[in-house]
Every structure is written in structure tokens, then in C-alpha cells.
């Protein structure tokens, strides 16, 4: 049995998958990530609850995975493949970035799991770009070459934020004073919405009346708080701008896919055209981006599914059956 997981900065989703046959989750459980002191404690709690001993663990985690080591900066967890093998007495443990896991899942999802955000011409042999705002800002690629798919993890959300007008230059100065380095994640994420709202209140000489991204989102959607609505508009422009950057850097002619927990909750804001306007605002390469379609990934556990599929892929390779899984 495969224990698969989507280990986010806020929530963790775990499930059991059969080693063979269709990738269908069983014993699915949702946990608050920060309620646990470590990944070992979290996994042990789940295993004790379901009373099933896995033969393999595969986790998509919100952080970089380098040589089998994970640093989840938004939670303060560090762990390795070796740690988990030793703790759970397993020979097979796989760790991958959560957006990399999402990329793995895309070829296996059905059309009903994609909401069109922007039309375009799909290049079936073209690269895909994946961007997801949540507790942080995740970015990944699915590179297509010679009939096979190669997911690539990145930490692009931590690249330098680029202001686009007088207001956002002041936002950058505000965030620089607060954090030092200002990344896209400081703006295009859940905490980013909070940062923008705090800044706008400061600009108006007001004390923030709302504290969480959830509260700001609800107030902005209903129009009850003009500053909350403006914060969401700035968030969506930043989100679209960085999605356009990622599409250019990856030549994502196969499309851009939006993941994460924020976009589905604020779906009506896409209809305002703010995201698309920022996505296309790339000067001489606007025409190139006009041809790239954008979809929102509307699958309840795509990262979890991707982690399970990756484990199955590795097991197939171990049996000497090559890369047929993703061909």
C-alpha cells in the first residue's frame, strides 16, 4: 500500500493507494499541518488512526526537495528520505515538491477538472506551466520532449517581486522595510493578500479592520470593504503578472494551469479581466502570450494524486518497465 500525501503549509491531506490498478484514494484524512510538531508525528498519527501499515510513502511537500532533503520554510520543518525510511521501517520513500506532484497529475485528469480562464491555441507537444497561490506561491513546469513528460520543480515564487506602477513601488518599499527581500510570494499568496491590505490601510492612515486573507477575501468579494476589494485586485494583477513571467520563461505553449486553494474561492475575480490583463502586459511578447490558454485546476486532491502516481511510476521503473507510465 502507498501512503500518499499533500503536505501544505496550512493543511495536509493523506490517503492510501493500492500498489496496482487505478489510482483511487482510500482512508482520506485532512489535518492542520501546524497542529503537529513534525512530519513524523503527523504521519504516525494517521497510520495509527487507519490501522494500515504502508509499504511505501510518497509525499508532495510545500518546499524544495534537494537530494532527498526537504525544507518547509512556511512551517519550519526539515526532514529527509532517510529520516522517514528509518522511522517507519520502509525501503521506499519518495519526496517531491507539491507543484511537481501537481504537474505529474495533469495528464491523468479529465476535462471536467479544468475551468477555462483564458482561451488560446493548445500546442499538444508544448510545455505546461503550473502556478499556485496558497500559503506560499508554488511554480512548476511540465516539459514535453520526444513523446514523454518531464515535471520540473522550481522555487520561482521566491524570485524578486517587480512593481508595475507608483502604488506598487510604494508597496515594494513597505514590504522591503518589513521583510528585507521582497519576493512574488510576499504579494501573490494568502499572506500576500494580508500584506497588501495592511499596506493599503497604512496608505489611508487607517488601522486594518481585517486580519486574515479569508476575511479580506470575503469582504472584497461582497464589496463591503473597498480596501479589501482593492487588495484583491492588486493580488490578482500580481498573480497574473507572474503567471505571464513563468509562461515566457518556460515557453508554455501547452498552457498555463492555476492550482492552489485561493483561486477557486475567488473565481469571480477572474471575470474582471485583471489576471489576464497582467498576464498579457509583456510588451513585445504580448502576441505570443495571447495564444497561450489558461485553466484553473479544479480537482480536490490533484497534489495527492500526483504523489501517488509518482510512486507508481517509480515502482514500474524498478520492475524494469521503463518510462511507459508517462509516455
- Under CATH, the topology of the largest domain can be stated as Nucleotidyltransferase, domain 5
Number of strands: 14
Beta percentage is: 15-25%
Span between N and C termini? Answer: 24 Å
Helix tally equals: 12
- Indicate the overall shape: globular
Number of domains: 3
Instruction: Characterize the largest beta sheet: strand count, sense, and whether it forms a barrel.
Output: 6 strands, mixed
Strand sequence of the main sheet, in spatial order?
Answer: 9-14-13-10-11-12
CATH class of the largest domain: Alpha Beta
Residues in helices, as a percent range: 25-40%
Radius of gyration: 20 Å
In short:
The chain has 327 residues and is α/β, with parallel strands linked by helices.
Account of the 3D structure:
With 327 residues, the chain is of the alpha/beta class. It folds into 3 domains: 2-98 and 301-319, Nucleotidyltransferase, domain 5; 105-159 and 238-297, Hexokinase, domain 1 (3-Layer(aba) Sandwich), CATH 3.40.367.20; 166-235, no CATH class. Helices cover 39% and strands 23% of the residues. It has helices spanning 39-50, 81-88, 98-105, 166-179, 190-203, 213-222, 226-250, 262-265, 267-270, 274-280, 286-290, 302-318, and strands spanning 2-7, 11-17, 26-32, 56-61, 65-66, 69-72, 77-80, 93-97, 114-118, 128-133, 137-145, 148-153, 255-259, 294-297. The strands form 3 sheets. The chain has a 6-stranded mixed β-sheet, sandwiched between helices. α3 (98-105) packs across α12, α5 packs across α7 (226-250) and α7 packs parallel to α10.
